[in-house]
Amino acid sequence: MNKESIAKAVFFDRDGVLNKDKHYLFRIADMEWIPGAREALAWLHTHGWKIIVVTNQSGVARGYYTEEDVHRLHDFMASEAEKAGGAIDDFFYCPHLKGAPVKAYDKDCSCRKPAPGMILQAMKKHRLLPAECFLIGDGARDVEAARRAGIQGFLFTSGRLDDFLQACLKQRNMGKEIHG
């Protein structure tokens, strides 16, 4: 396999990274992009990166909303990213929560971050190499999931996501890791 045929991917947590964290977001009307998020997605798309969202969605297990609600919001986000010149290639979400009131989702799974399951599933599905991937998340559980999956993790706390993305790319080019 030559260098040109190896896919590069950025994994994004959803709430607090791509969209403002509104505590169990599922309504399209409540969706608000983080400043610079659509621009970051457009830049990555035009530069040949795969864009994959990995998100814990325990609101399903808590009975606040359904998996259909999650899919509807993700379809909307993908459509809005396309309108801005970007893309979201795939979404992986974990609806599980140990001790959840909705018994169908009451489980200790390997996909809920900080477990690396969603990242590993995506890497297998999209035939990605760890060295060609990194994750941007807003919490320690995101960075830990990245570490466990063997990829770099970067902690986004505030500011414009497109500026933060460029700083992450610069760090990667210098061979420095800034995850736990």
TrEMBL record:
GO terms for molecular function: metal ion binding; phosphatase activity. It holds the Pfam family Hydrolase. It is found in: Cytoplasm. Zn(2+) binds at residues 94, 96, 109, 111. Its cofactor is Mg(2+); Zn(2+). The active site is at residues 13, 15. It comes from the Bacteria. Mg(2+) binds at residues 13, 15, 138. It is an enzyme of class 3 (hydrolase). The record marks 112 as: Contributes to substrate recognition. Its EC number is 3.1.3.-. The record marks 55, 113 as: Stabilizes the phosphoryl group. GO terms for cellular component: cytoplasm. Keywords: Carbohydrate metabolism, Cytoplasm, Hydrolase, Magnesium, Metal-binding, Zinc. The keyword Hydrolase applies. Belongs to the gmhB family. NCBIfam families: HAD-SF-IIIA (TIGR01662), Histidinol-ppas (TIGR01656). This is D,D-heptose 1,7-bisphosphate phosphatase.
